[in-house]
């Protein structure tokens, strides 16, 4: 007898819209929550182009605005979701991790510790390991 239960899907998420330029981060976050609630797995969330700003620990939204950074951090704390920012896009936009701060001899870093940096190869690999890649622009 066949089971009616489908195995969980692995979903890779790509976010490209800037922190305050689009709804992409908010929409991607809501999609991730719904996907997890439905019993599926998020392979990773990859932030590319202007979306790397979502990882900045220095962004300070107004009290009534969506706090992207804190929301992503809570998602990864509660669900162990891997948050990855594109290293090239991040460096171009002044978003650097603590390790990059040391390597580049900068005064400070501003990438929240819940986020990691990687190249486009990480996006490609996650896409190969996933059933679907969903893009939020």
Q: Can you describe this structure?
A:
Helices cover about 35% and strands about 20% of the residues. A five-stranded parallel sheet has the order 4-3-2-1-5, with helices on both faces. The protein is built from five helices and five strands; from the N terminus they run βαβαβααβαβ. The chain has a single domain (about 20-135), classed as Hypothetical Protein Ychn, Chain: A, CATH 3.40.1260.10. The radius of gyration is 16 Å and the shape is globular. By secondary structure, the protein is of the alpha/beta class. β2 (about 40-45), α2 and β3 form a beta-alpha-beta unit.
The CATH topology annotation reads as: Hypothetical Protein Ychn, Chain: A
Q: What order do the helices and strands follow?
A: EHEHEHHEHE
So, CATH architecture?
A: 3-Layer(aba) Sandwich
Overall average pLDDT: 93
CATH class identity:
Alpha Beta
Number of domains: 1
Which shape, going by the Cα principal axes? globular
Strand-residue fraction?
15-25%
> How are strands sequenced across the largest beta sheet?
4-3-2-1-5
CA radius of gyration is: 16 Å
Major sheet: 5 strands, parallel
Taking pLDDT < 50 over at least 5 consecutive residues as the criterion, the unreliable ranges are none
In angstroms, what separates the terminal alpha carbons?
43 Å
Helicity range: 25-40%
Identify the CATH homologous superfamily: DsrEFH-like
The tally of helices reads 5
Helix-strand category: alpha/beta
């Amino acid at each position: 007898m066949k089971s009616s239960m489908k195995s969980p899907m692995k979903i890779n998420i790509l976010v490209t819209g800037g922190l305050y330029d689009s709804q992409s981060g908010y929409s991607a976050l809501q999609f991730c929550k719904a996907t997890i609630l439905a019993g599926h797995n998020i392979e990773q969330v990859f932030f590319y182009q202007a979306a790397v700003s979502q990882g900045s620990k220095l962004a300070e939204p107004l009290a009534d605005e969506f706090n992207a950074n804190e929301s992503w951090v809570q998602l990864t704390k509660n669900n162990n979701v891997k948050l990855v920012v594109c290293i090239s896009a991040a460096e171009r936009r002044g978003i650097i991790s603590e390790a990059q701060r040391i390597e580049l001899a900068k005064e400070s870093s501003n990438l929240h510790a819940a986020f990691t940096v990687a190249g486009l190869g990480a996006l490609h690999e996650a896409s190969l390991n996933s059933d679907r890649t969903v893009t939020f622009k």
